[in-house]
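Long-time lurker. I teach an intro course on protein structure, and each term I like to show students one example going from raw sequence to a predicted 3D structure in token notation. This year I'd like something fresh instead of my usual example. Would anyone be willing to generate the tokens for the chain below so I can use it in lecture? Attribution to the forum is fine with me.
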Amino acid sequence: MPATSKAQQKAAGAALAAKRGEAKPKDLKGAASDMYRSMTEKELEDLAHTKHDALPEHKNS
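-- Reply from a regular --
Happy to contribute to a lecture. Here you go:
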């Protein structure tokens, strides 16, 4: 599942770092914290590795 915005990709990257032990889970905020708790490492990898050239900064509703 590819990321739909750069913000989502950044949050997934932060959550992935925490899953791998490279960052502290308690330092995560907002969407990154939710992603850390609810997604697997593989799902986070898929979001974080999306090419971001054509992505908007934030997704419009």
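Some talking points for your students: The CA atoms of residues 35 and 47 lie 10 Å apart. DSSP finds three helices and no strands in the chain.
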